[in-house]
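Sequence in, structure out.
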Amino acid sequence: MRSWTATGRVVPAAAPLDRFTIEATVEQVALVAAVFFALSANGPFLSAAARGHAAAELGTWAYMLALVTALASLHFVLIALVANRWTLKPLLLLLATASALTAHFTARYGVHVDASMIRNVLQTDVAEASELLTWSVWTRLLLYVGVPLALLWRVRIVRRPALRAMGVRAIWMLAAALVGVAALWAVLQPFSSFIRNNREARHLITPGNVVWSLGTVLARDVRGAAKPRQAIGVDAKPGPSWAARHKPMLFVLVVGETARAANWGLSGYARLTTPQLAGLPVINFRDVSSCGTSTEVSLPCLFAPVGRRDYDRARIRDSEGLLHVVSRAGVAVHWRDNQSGCKGVCDGLPNETVKVDGAPTLCANGHCFDEALLHGLDARLAQAQGTQLLVLHQIGNHGPAYYRRYPASFAKFVPACENEDLHQCSRAEIVNAYDNALLYTDHVLAQLIRQLASHVDAVDSALLYVSDHGESLGESGLFLHGMPNAIAPDVQAKVPMVMWMSDGFRSHTGLSDGCLQARSARAASHDHVFHTVLGLLDVRTSLYESAFDLSAECRRDAPGSTRAPL
């Protein structure tokens, strides 16, 4: 199309869409985005900050306005610090997506986004992630990402000379910082009291929490990834009892997923979620604390010599663990996985992931039921030699799709929630699905014990089952897991732990069953696993601490072994 000016010069006519295009500076767009993030993504933070303040009071509204102003100022500075006219729109696309997802999962499940949660996200697999992408997630993305970005697309960023742009940017950032500081200063007393008593609330500030946590993870993990793991237990060697053995020994360590002690039948839950184990000679530890509330934290910690009592993530991540120590002593280690990997604890050692073609009747939709972990176990037992440690890593009760963790024949508690969006189900339905998954774990463990027991004439065997962390099922509005340890509820931190031994294993290790039963009534934790396994396998190393070996006080002198402190 063409149009004519008064002088007769022909100029192009504005395209219809150009009428809806506006010009704006980087600072103007960043300010609008910062206000948008403060209002749309920080509901959980503002709700936590408003707790205890009367909504009808004018001071409460002034307090909340000051916090929104401070949030907008903070995010404006973050955006303005790295954005320019070329990177602004891609940056806002990433921040809008991260903010929408974070706000959704924080509001619906009560999760806090810290470095640990970012690691969980980065390490999850496609099948697990897809279960979280419900229709409510896509709806939020459409409203809080699609619509704003459609509007942003019609914004033309003003071009300015470089020096002038830098000067203007500095003035804007300084002004924003001053406004933010002034806003917080005006409400310093109630805000400082809130933060002092709710330190973890800083993980609710969105998208600042994502940016900070992701930066922390990249700075620490990428730097450490290039370094080889530090060898530990280099003095590990087999104990005297090895020479006295007349049969091979197989120790099976089952690492559960998301099983919480509160719903464990053997530990006093009103429902019998462990009927098969209840009929077997197992030792149930009733009061066990996990190292963390997520697999990313708990799994490496579980295999470390010093766990939660002296927690140092960098040291745990950069060092070898239990499996490397016992392997050095001559134990044949093998890891079988039905989840998202061993988080580094089996690096360099024989390991495998359960495959659909290995047990096709137990696998569907990208997941295998945990019974697939037992596939080929009879053959392993028939060919057993020496001392072996087999680790089975379950999918267990991994949420939110609890109903996918068990075959239909284990749907005993009904109606069960069959929706990944837990808010579409009643709490009773959620608990039913969760308990059905525990019922299936009971079956898997009982089946494993029966298989081990069928080979006792040829192999001395033992089993230790412990879950990595617990789960929230709607208590106090919380779902799933991953809360920071400082504020995590017991249902996320208390886990079941069960031990079983063949008569030959018990006799050879000199264990008193009655003593172990008595010990199981006292408190235990993930910190005990490393040293208990060393003790039961009679692996000698200076790393061993008898105080954290659950079996130490229950072992009598056995043939070929003094059973003195290792």
